[in-house]
């Protein structure tokens, strides 16, 4: 696989869900909170049925019921993880709206879910949105660009320089 | 030098186990590749590449590196993958 990254221009990353944008450090999972998966932000989603959209324009390279990765045209990948430990739900409550391998412009519906049900199952519905393989300079710029607070799906969340 | 390892994490090499694994390979002194049996190897230092492999729990992966200390590195990484990284 060619993982070489061509830096064309800053990559705008939009909120995949409606809710409240929070710092990654506030995610109730140490691996995400410590930027180990990568830098980014998270969204505490509005409770109730919701649609999750693509955070960038690109290809839906990986699609799981509880998580997906979209790679932009320049090769940079963004991970959206729907809740914490939700892999243990084995797909229950998640409806796939797109197919792995398809082209997804930013804002394209990918998954339907209900954060209230995730919470009722005893799990956190907080959604980390992660810049994968970001280099150190990008990490700093990215942290400063996060738009914290109320967001609607499709609003700018951060910029990956 | 190659090493075939069965991934212990029940969920496979997904977000958190993959992050722990990539952190370990990034800290290693030699570049390491990871592949599913019979498939094209990818950089084990790229979380995007590792997530793209979509390794499931119980599946075999082939780790490969060359150079001084290769055996020690493969030993460590193999040990890591045979732990349940979801813990």
Question: How do you describe this structure in short?
Answer:
The complex is a heterodimer of chains A (161) and B (87). Chain A contains three helices and 13 strands, in the order ββαββββββββαβαββ. By secondary structure, chain A is mostly beta strands.
Average pLDDT taken over every residue of chain A: 93
Range of strand content of chain A: 35-45%
| Percentage of residues in DSSP E strands of chain B | 15-25%
**Which ranges of chain A are low-confidence, i.e. pLDDT below 50, for 5 or more consecutive residues?**
none
Biggest interface and residues each: A-B, 21 and 18 residues
CATH class of chain A: Mainly Beta
Summing up helix and strand content along with how strands pair, one would put the structural category of chain B as alpha+beta
What does this protein structure show overall?
- The complex is a heterodimer of chains A (161) and B (87).
- By secondary structure, chain A is mainly beta.
- Chain A has helices spanning 30-33, 115-120, 136-145; strands at 11-14, 19-22, 40-45, 50-53, 58-63, 67-72, 77-81, 95-96, 103-104, 109-113, 127-132, 149-151, 156-160.
- Chain A has one domain (11-151): Glucose Permease (Domain IIA), CATH 2.70.70.10.
- Chain A starts with 10 loop residues before the first strand and ends with a strand.
- Chain B is α+β, with helices and mostly antiparallel strands.
- Chain B has one domain (2-81): 2-Layer Sandwich (Histidine-containing Protein, Chain: A).
- Chain B contains three helices and four strands; from the N terminus they run βαββαβα.
- Chain B has helices at residues 15-27, 47-53, 70-81, and strands at 2-6, 33-36, 42-43, 60-64.
- In chain B, strands 1-4-2-3 form a four-stranded antiparallel beta sheet, with helices on one face.
- The radius of gyration of chain B is 11 Å and the shape is globular.
- The model of chain B has no long low-confidence stretch (mean pLDDT 93).
- The chains are: A mainly beta (161), B alpha+beta (87).
- At the A-B interface, strand 6 and strand 7 of A face helix 1, strand 3 and helix 2 of B.
């Amino acid at each position: 696989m060619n993982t070489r990254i061509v830096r064309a221009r800053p990559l705008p990353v939009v909120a995949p869900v409606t809710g409240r944008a929070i710092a990654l450090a506030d995610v109730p999972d140490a691996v995400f909170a410590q930027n180990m998966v990568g830098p980014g932000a998270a969204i505490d989603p509005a409770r109730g049925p919701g649609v999750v959209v693509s955070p960038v324009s690109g290809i839906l390279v990986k699609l799981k019921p509880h998580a997906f990765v979209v790679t932009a045209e320049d090769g940079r990948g963004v991970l959206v993880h729907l809740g914490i430990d939700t892999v243990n739900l084995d797909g229950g409550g998640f409806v796939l709206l797109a197919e792995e391998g398809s082209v997804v412009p930013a804002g394209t519906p990918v998954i339907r879910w209900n954060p209230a049900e995730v919470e009722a199952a005893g799990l956190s519905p907080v959604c980390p949105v992660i810049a994968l393989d970001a280099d150190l300079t990008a990490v700093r710029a990215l942290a400063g660009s996060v738009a914290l607070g109320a967001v609607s799906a499709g609003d700018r969340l951060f910029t990956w320089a | 030098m190659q090493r075939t390892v069965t991934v212990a994490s029940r969920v496979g090499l997904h977000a958190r186990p993959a992050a722990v694994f990539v952190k370990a390979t990034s800290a290693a002194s030699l570049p390491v590749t990871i592949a599913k049996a019979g498939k094209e190897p990818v950089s084990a230092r790229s979380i995007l590449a590792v997530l793209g492999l979509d390794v499931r729990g119980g599946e075999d992966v082939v780790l490969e590196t060359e150079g001084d200390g290769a055996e020690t590195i493969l030993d460590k990484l193999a040990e890591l993958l045979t732990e349940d990284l979801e813990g």
